[in-house]
Specification:
Strand content: 35-45%
Structural class: mainly beta
Distance between the termini: 47 Å
Order of helices and strands: EEEEEEEEEEEE
Number of strands: 12
Mean pLDDT: 84
Strand order of the largest sheet: 1-2-3-4
Number of helices: 0
Helix content: under 10%
Length: 187
């Protein structure tokens, strides 16, 4: 997970030598995986490849940073990782990959993906921020719209911000596609 070509723990900060000579402008650490965004919009990943978390089209473990070739020809401007991963490209498109139980990737199903896939439900929106969190996804658009998807939560709570009628004994379906949160601003 640390990108040093081994699986040894590090007690002190240590430079990731495999990225030497590259200007890293952002990083994100997920559940057993790490990502770095370098100038030019290139995304690098390393760590556990569980269910395609690293975005290389396989489930292989990577001990050193490896470029995500699926973004060749595009410029990535942001990346956010948890158990699954999201990215935003320069055109404002949101992408996701990795484990997809509970609909956390936002593609309308629960099929895991080992390569980045554009979140088509957000097409036509200019996404400026995206967050991978637990079993959820959140996106903010340039016009201020806020979307969420994934697992609703339990115990009468709606983590996604959509509200729902809680009926004892009945489950609540997960939100498999991004859904706009209707924000109410009180006085």
């Amino acid at each position: 997970v640390l990108g040093h070509a081994n699986e040894q723990h590090q007690q002190l900060p240590k430079k990731v030598e495999a990225l030497a000579g590259r200007r890293v402008i952002a990083v994100s650490a997920g559940d057993g995986c790490s990502f770095a965004l370098t100038t030019g919009g290139v995304v690098w990943s390393w760590g556990s490849g569980f269910l395609g978390t690293l975005g290389h089209g396989d489930t292989e473990k990577q001990l050193l940073p490896k470029r995500i070739d699926a973004f060749a020809g595009q410029r990535v401007i942001a990346v956010s990782a948890d158990r699954h991963t999201f990215a935003i490209t320069a055109d404002g498109s949101a992408w996701s990959w990795g484990p997809n139980n509970l609909g956390r990737l936002g593609h309308g199903d629960t099929q895991s993906r080992s390569l980045p896939n554009k979140i088509e439900a957000l097409a036509g929106q200019r996404v400026v921020s995206v967050v991978a969190s637990g079993c959820h996804g959140f996106a903010l658009t340039a016009d201020g719209a806020f979307f969420s998807w994934g697992h609703h939560g339990g115990g009468g709570e709606s983590i996604l911000g959509h509200g729902y009628p809680f009926v004892m004994g009945q489950g609540v379906e997960d939100q498999l596609l991004p859904k706009k949160i209707d924000l109410w601003v009180g006085e």
